[in-house]
From TrEMBL:
It comes from the Bacteria. This is Aminotransferase class III-fold pyridoxal phosphate-dependent enzyme. The chain holds residues 578 to 1014 of 1014 of the full protein. The lineage of its organism: Bacteria, Pseudomonadati, Pseudomonadota, Alphaproteobacteria, Hyphomicrobiales. Belongs to the class-III pyridoxal-phosphate-dependent aminotransferase family.
Length: 437
């Protein structure tokens, strides 16, 4: 079924009915009518290999999730003021994936809502407002979160940082100054956080919190140098601030080796916020917090969330965690991710435009540069590769401050055959773009 409306009709209606700042992927838009596993099917019946969307964590329309959702939706959906098994069952399962210090869960409806609730908790616990964020980060749609998102406020339409927002350098090892010794990268980048704390101290102020994605993804699939978060968390805590890990993109086992990306840095945050893959497409978010912070937040004001933690969402959340565990999807992500990364490195030997290959599990990036010495971003080439791949039926994205990083986050069920398919199309795309340059 191709749907009732042609692509041109939908574009026209979007223009007259919807916010003009809702963008559309690709110059020639795609209309999808069905999703199944790693595949998206367009209105002409063509199948595309989805290597981009990290929300459909277990693959599009995973039967276990659809079944859990439909069964619970047909039985009961209410709010958290009535007792139900699902919310406690889900809280037990979700917190069991986290370090033991993070034992209290709160359920919301999106990643933004999770970060927004984290800010309320931070304020209740510290009484402070000062924020330290990493450059080029993004944390959500609300005004208070746009204010914490250089990715938005530094760009067109943004108004720069507000007074309580302190931006530290992005710890991007690939673009570190050439004279920094490799073993000192963590310390050198962390010095930028110390500087922000000093700036506040000079005014008699202190940080309320530090928030960062544990692997900065919006900033271009950037892996922090080993020891960086440990160093930064120590500094922020010494100044009385809290540490919030935004795991909205990178969490739920995508990186393979661990459930949560902060674990790769050997730290335990005070609050971890999660979203996107949590419901395999069903709109959900959550946070997990230390008990003493939850207790500060319990200050007399009720917390009620109409939809958060409802029996249907919790049934979906349980099905997602069950499936990851039952089907060994973390192990799969680690294996297939390593295979893909090796394939990317092999391509890097043959295409000088590939400056850097980065990845952990099924969280992958390829940074393109005009020249490996100067590292001038090859933004147009990245876009061209994306378009060539789309023409060959493979979906990926571009990301980063210069939009020159090919971003791939395929679903956790990706197979070796899917990986070979992606590698073949990438090879053809690099070849096609090299021919036209
Ligand atoms: N944090 C990060 C790192 C994100 O990538 C996003 C969404 N792109 C959010 C928070 C906000 O999540 P949502 O769109 O579900 O509100």
């Amino acid at each position: 079924d191709a749907g009732r409306l042609s692509k041109a009709e939908i574009v026209k209606k979007r223009q007259s009915l919807l916010l003009p700042n809702l963008s559309i992927s690709y110059e020639e838009p795609i209309k999808f009518v069905k999703g199944e596993g790693v595949w998206l099917i367009d209105d002409r019946g063509r199948a595309y290999l989805d290597c981009f969307n990290n929300v459909c964590h277990l693959g599009h329309c995973h039967p276990a999730v659809v079944e859990a959702l439909a069964t619970q939706a047909a039985t009961l959906n209410t709010n958290t003021r009535y007792l139900h098994d699902n919310i406690v069952a889900y809280a037990e399962r979700l917190t069991a994936t986290m370090p033991k210090e993070l034992g209290i869960a709160a359920f919301v409806n999106s990643g933004s809502e999770a970060n927004s609730l984290a800010l309320r908790m931070m304020r209740a616990h510290t009484g402070r407002e000062n924020a330290i964020v990493l450059d080029w980060s993004y944390h959500g749609t609300t005004q208070e979160l746009i204010d914490l998102s250089p990715y938005k406020f530094r760009r067109k339409g943004g108004h720069g940082p507000r007074l309580h927002v302190h931006v530290a350098d992005l710890p991007d090892a690939y673009r570190a100054p050439a004279d920094w010794p490799q073993e000192e990268l963590a310390k050198r980048f962390a010095a930028s956080v110390a500087e922000q704390i000093d700036t506040m101290a000079a005014k008699g102020e202190a940080p309320g919190f530090f928030i960062a994605e544990s692997i900065p993804s919006v900033a271009g699939q950037v892996f922090m140098p080993e020891g960086y978060l440990d160093e930064v968390y120590r500094m922020v805590r010494a100044a009385g601030g809290l540490c919030i890990a935004d795991e909205v993109q990178v969490g739920f086992g995508r990186i393979g080796s661990h459930w949560w990306a902060f674990e790769t840095q050997g730290v335990v945050p005070d609050i971890a916020t999660v979203g996107k893959p949590i419901g395999n497409g069903h709109p959900m978010g959550a946070l997990v917090v230390r008990r003493e912070i939850a207790e500060s937040f319990h200050n007399g004001m009720e917390y009620f969330n109409t939809f958060g933690g409802n029996p249907v969402s919790c049934a979906v959340g349980l099905a997602v965690i069950d499936t990851i565990e039952r089907d060994g999807l973390r192990e799969n992500a680690a294996d297939i991710g390593a295979y893909l990364k090796a394939g990317f490195i092999e391509l890097q030997h043959r295409y000088p435009v590939i400056g850097d290959v980065r990845g952990m599990g099924l969280f992958l990036g390829i940074e393109l540069v005009e020249d490996r010495e100067s590292k001038v971003p090859a933004t147009a080439t990245a876009r061209a590769i994306c378009n060539e791949a789309r023409a060959r039926g493979v979906l990926m994205g571009t990301e980063g401050p210069y939009d020159n990083v090919l971003k791939m986050r395929p679903s956790m069920i990706f197979s070796i055959a899917n990986a070979d398919h992606l590698l073949g199309v990438l090879e053809e795309s690099f070849e096609a773009v090299a021919r036209t340059e």
